[in-house]
Amino acid sequence: MLKVAVRESSLKIPAKLKIDFQRTKNREHGDFATNIALALAKENERAPKEIADLLIKLLNSAKFTENLNEIGIKKIEVAGPGFINLFLEQQSRGQVINLILSNLENFGHSNLLKGQRINLEFVSANPTGPLHLGHTRWAAVGDGMARVLRAAGATVSTEFYINDRGNQMNLFAQSIINVAQNKPVPADGYNGEYIKELANQILTENPDFKKLTGEAAITKYREAGYKLQLSEQQQVLKDFRTHFDTWFSEESLYQDDFVNKVIEKYRAKGKVFTEEGAIWLRTTEFGDDKDRVLVKSDGAFAYFASDIAYYTSKRDRGFDLCIYLLGADHHGYIARLKAAAGCAGDDPEKNIKVLIGQMVKIIEAGAELKLSKRAGTIITLAELVEKVGVDAARYTLMRYPTDTPMVLDVDLLKKHTNDNPVYYVQYAHARICAMLRNAKDLSVTVLKHPIANQYLSLLGHEREIDLLSALSKFPEVVASSAQLLQPHRICRYLEDLAGIYHRFYNDCRVLPVGEEKVSELHQMRVTLSLATAQVIKNGLTLIGVEAPERM
RNA sequence: GCGCCUGUAGCUCAGUCGGAUAGAGCGAAUGCCUUCUAAGCAUUAGGUCGCAGGUUCGAUUCCUGCCAGGCGCGCCA
How long is the CA A145 to C1' B4 vector, in angstroms? Predict the structure, then answer.
């Protein structure tokens, strides 16, 4: 409609025109706003305000009145330097309630990414120790991201890559053996209480291992330690409500000569060459700063050979997009992983995305806990959860964009107060549930949808308008959260929504007081509250946090 | 030396595509429970958006340089 108006306005339209048409941040600016007049100002050499006035005059002319009424526009204003603000009719704002009540747990879901098959790999720890803080961040964010992507219609498969190949597994085995025999662990070996526990457990289950020596001992201990450690990781992640569809073993890439076949495939594309006795992949062709070794001069596979094989496996299994969530210490991998996609003939911009998560620092009792594997002072996922609980841990780790380093204050998280935003959001939900229970006792019934305009237009209080506006933003938030791969947006939205509800609750009495008769406004507000609870619950579900009915 | 990330209130941090008075929580001060959960609400205080240039009608946002912090730069895995 605006477009038509502009065309009829005889204004000059610049070749490159970028127009915003978005929801406003401030209620005083109406429900929607556009900067179109500002954008047209230069080309027409007229003040933006003048242009805005002209457009509004056109829109208000008889020609458009019918259209305006149809979409529920109440008035149009010019404001500030030339923004055009649109105000909606009361009942149009209220329609979101009908939308929520008819979609329930699916409100916010969309078909935005329908048809996309996404492989989402995260955590991917070595099975040589417990999951630590860095893994924890990704466990929360990755799981949230998967849920958000699914809500946007994508088909998502979550995957954990088990680094079960190479020297470190033998070092792991040797460390257990040494500890079992009260000898110091080898240089660069694994330390910590858990190695002792593993040794004890292995010997208890397999007393005959004591007699083993040399290669046989390494193999047996390695297998037993691997099995125990992996299942420990799996249990911890399960308790953290982080689900993996696939546990993919690096070692399995070497079955049936798969890695060699992949190298030959890359060779056929002309990206593989031999130099100084080693076999290389020409990753520099796709922006890497040096080429990478696939097979070392001693004939052993380099780690990168697994990487390209793994990527190939993902593509072979039908995924359009492979997302990797890596720690900050792996940012050097972005270029080579993208190059691996490029060398395979894929589009590095489309088929692969590598996200880097910055470090997590942890503070307890006012001091930073220095993390050191060698000293055995690692904070594990299990310990963090034990200290603060799954909901608080997940929520806090998911609350920030992953490219910001974050500081976790354990003492703060332990407090069940507003210091911890997860309780603020959960409290809003519990509060509504309590009120709905009371409503039932007072026989204030929830209105059946679709709710007629006459009821919807009862919601004219500014707190009610704020709340309706916040509720109608939810689908957009989910969509942008999925598109940008930023689940933290859900958290921020929920905090915003919870705050708006709390303010509504404070200013707008929902239930009748004393002998007061039940009115349509009471019913309408109860219904509005029910819709709000639904949205909070949907949001919390997306980040894997519980929506308690009582607190 | 090169590369990636970060620098916004006392603290922890939001702020997709450049837009209206830069936001939230905590911390500080003061109010609000004989009516729906006070894990709440309201008011106040607190900012040269690291610094300097540039592009633009308009820059916290984009570009360049510099400063500070974190993390990387193996034929390790």
Answer: 23
